[in-house]
Design the sequence.
């Protein structure tokens, strides 16, 4: 497995009064909005921390599959006529189809950290829907990758999540003909393959090629998010 480290310090960073955001691909807010490049069908991987009682303004999406993962705190999803709280370590799945309006934010007194991933859909023919998919739970199954993206989502990439306690390891496997992008939350973690080892700190990313590797969480627990396409 080949590993290409992308340290957080080399990525697009936005830090304003209400949100601090690292964009791994195309940036969506602040002075860097529109900068960056997509990775195949993945346009956005935003690592955002909301200040207390801060939120995005209501905005529209069309023909986009969106996955939101709550890493810390409770996220609130707003639509024009309703809102929904999404618990820590849960995921929300949205399929914009022909158009939808929404906004994510933090209605609590403590910071909220989330990841949001935008994926180009396989087809653009269905009506708008927005559903939730709380599939991550308390990470009781250590070492197992849990796929967040259901078959009903028109995704062209699979999003998987796992949790690794400190000083323990899991296997990372990318199928032949595919590639992956790994994001580390917490850690650090070390990816070892074929005598090569690369360490990811909190917020770092890495491209990984087909093959197998061993991932070890050093000193602190880590949440790992894998996008495979």
Sequence:
């Amino acid at each position: 497995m080949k590993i290409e480290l992308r340290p957080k310090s080399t990525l697009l960073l936005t830090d304003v009064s209400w949100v601090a955001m690292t964009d791994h691909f195309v940036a969506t807010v602040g002075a860097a909005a529109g900068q960056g490049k997509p990775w195949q069908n993945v346009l956005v991987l935003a690592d955002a921390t909301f200040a207390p009682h801060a939120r995005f303004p209501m905005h529209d999406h069309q023909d986009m599959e969106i996955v939101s993962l709550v890493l810390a705190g409770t996220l609130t999803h707003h639509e024009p006529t309703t809102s929904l709280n999404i618990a820590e370590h849960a995921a929300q799945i949205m399929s914009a189809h022909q158009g939808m309006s929404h906004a994510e934010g933090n209605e609590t007194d403590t910071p909220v950290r989330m990841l949001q991933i935008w994926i180009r859909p396989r087809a653009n023919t269905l009506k708008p829907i927005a559903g939730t998919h709380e599939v991550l739970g308390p990470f009781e199954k250590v070492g197992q990758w849990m796929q967040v993206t259901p078959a009903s989502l028109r995704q062209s990439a699979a999003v998987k999540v796992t949790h690794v306690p400190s000083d323990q390891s899991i296997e990372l496997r990318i199928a032949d003909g595919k590639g992956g992008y790994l994001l580390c939350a917490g850690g650090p973690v070390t990816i070892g393959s074929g005598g090569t080892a690369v360490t990811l700190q909190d917020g770092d990313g890495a491209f990984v090629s087909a093959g197998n590797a061993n991932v070890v969480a050093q000193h602190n627990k880590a949440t790992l998010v894998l996008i495979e396409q």
About this structure: The domain at 12-132 is CATH 2.60.120.10 (Jelly Rolls). Residues 130-140 have pLDDT under 50 and may be disordered. The CA atoms of residues 94 and 218 lie 34 Å apart. The chain is about 0% helix and 50% strand.
